[in-house]
Amino acid sequence: MSVHTGQKPFACELCGQRFIRKYHLGTHMRVHTGEKPFTCELCGQRFIRKDILGIHMRVHTGQKPCACELCGQRFSQKITLNRHMRVHTGQKPFVCELCEKRFRVKSSLNIHMRVHTGQKPFACELCEKRFSLKSSLNCHMRVHTGQKPCACELCGQRYSDKSSLNCHMRVHTGQKPFACELCGQRFSRKTHLTTHMKLHTGEKPFACELCGQRFTQKGNLDTHMRVHTGERHFACELCGQRFSRKTHLNTHMTVHTGQKLFVCELCGKRFTRKGHVDTHMTVHTGQKPFACKLCGQRFTRKGHLDRHMRVHTGQKPFACELCGQQFSHKTSLNSHVRVHTGQKPFVCELCGKRFTRKGHLDTHMRVHTGQKPFACELCGQRFTQKGNLDTHVRVHTGQKSLACELCGQRFSHKTSLDTHIRVHTGQKSFACGLCGQRFSHTTTLNRHMRVHTGQNK
Question: Is the pTM of this model over 0.85?
């Protein structure tokens, strides 16, 4: 009758739990005594109740008598089926008392509590780093073993964990599931969105201890510190030039490979960097948003304006360590250093001629292509270099901007001035290879050679 009345007359003297039947009390006492009279004959595991042993045997037999009526998935235990049903019902009965987050199973709540307690019970035996999840420790161990079991089926690239592979797959699918609620920009990773949000909030939590400059990301601060230390980890295997950033090295490699991935949609010109395309577009739009406050000259890029300001200030912050010569631009210093080293990293693939500057190589290539992009607006004559066009225009204008400091005579060409200077200095740079007589002009030497060849004047 106690089944109908709910009466539980048998109480445990140790914990106070009550039972309907004395047999149930006797079975319960094994919890306190540790007695496990029922043994699995296959693996030796022991149990306090025969029915628990029966359920355990399904591990060996593979029997799954409990089936989900909604999806057909089968389970070995009724309690496991009940937990599974919450996937369909959405029921999450286990609630965190600190943040009210809800979970389907008690074990998930227990793991979640480590977020609040900071508990990390799983430690790496090699580096002692600790983790809150056993699965996180297992993934971490692949750092030491180098194991990358997760492979991309499209490109073959391998990863140490499934989550990294899933992020990588968005490269192929173009999926960007994380959207900024303020500007709508989308990202393939949650961490990228978190970093992006700092642009709106202005948050820069990472500060340089040496100069106070602040950054939104720890990685940016680490990279910035190389400005102070002068550290350059990344070396080019072809020419030895070193860089403080991997991205700078990757960009530099295009100098050797000639690879230009970014194309202007209007004129087809190709570039090694995306930023160069954006800057190039101002050639088509004519936009020059950066103006000099002193002379009004306008520029397409902020960097060009900053360099231009040194014309007014006379500042030359870049000094050659070998000869002390000062330069207003870092690129000018780099090019100058090659005078000392003799390095010529830019090679013409057609004739093998080498150059100290990329611009010189580009100009040289017009010798092979016959390209003459600079045209005189007055007579139509075309030139391979802008400087040659500027010199030519003086033929039409009559401008003679170069003056001899000794006699005041003026010239339109630098070469003409240099030749004239020899009148004052008496310098005779051109020698006859047959008799050794010297001349101040190459034309005079050519005339002299007719004495030896017998050619009529």
Answer: no
pLDDT digits (tens, 9 = 90+) for 95-145: 999 899 999 888 889 989 988 998 999 999 988 899 988 888 888 888 898
CB atoms within 10 A of CB 73: 13
Taking alpha carbons only, the member of 368, 367, 387, 389 closest to residue 378 is 389
Q: Dig out the tokens for 344 from the structure.
A: 């010529």
* Reduced 3-state DSSP string for the chain: CHHHHCCCCEECCCCCCEECCHHHHHHHHHHHHCCCCEECCCCCCEECCHHHHHHHHHHHHCCCCEECCCCCCEECCHHHHHHHHHHHHCCCCEECCCCCCEECCHHHHHHHHHHHHCCCCEECCCCCCEECCHHHHHHHHHHHHCCCCEECCCCCCEECCHHHHHHHHHHHHCCCCEECCCCCCEECCHHHHHHHHHHHHCCCCEECCCCCCEECCHHHHHHHHHHHHCCCCEECCCCCCEECCHHHHHHHHHHHHCCCCEECCCCCCEECCHHHHHHHHHHHHCCCCEECCCCCCEECCHHHHHHHHHHHHCCCCEECCCCCCEECCHHHHHHHHHHHHCCCCEECCCCCCEECCHHHHHHHHHHHHCCCCEECCCCCCEECCHHHHHHHHHHHHCCCCEECCCCCCEECCHHHHHHHHHHHHCCCCEECCCCCCEECCHHHHHHHHHHHHCCCC
Distance between CA atoms of 10 and 28, rounded to whole angstroms?
A: 11
Nearest to 357 by CA among 370, 346, 373, 372: 346
* β-strand partners of 430: 439
The bridge status of strand 430-431 relative to strand 438-439 is antiparallel
How many whole angstroms separate alpha carbon 203 and alpha carbon 257?
A: 40
Q: Which amino acid is at 372?
A: K
The token pair at 398 is 């009559």
d(CA 210, CA 166): 39
Round to whole Å and give the CA distance between 72 and 67: 6
CB < 8 Å & 24+ apart, contacts of 55-58: none
Q: What's the pLDDT tens digit per position in 266-302?
A: 888 888 777 788 778 777 887 888 888 888 888 877 8
In whole angstroms, give the CA distance from residue 94 to residue 127.
Answer: 35
Cα–Cα dist 417/411, whole Å: 6
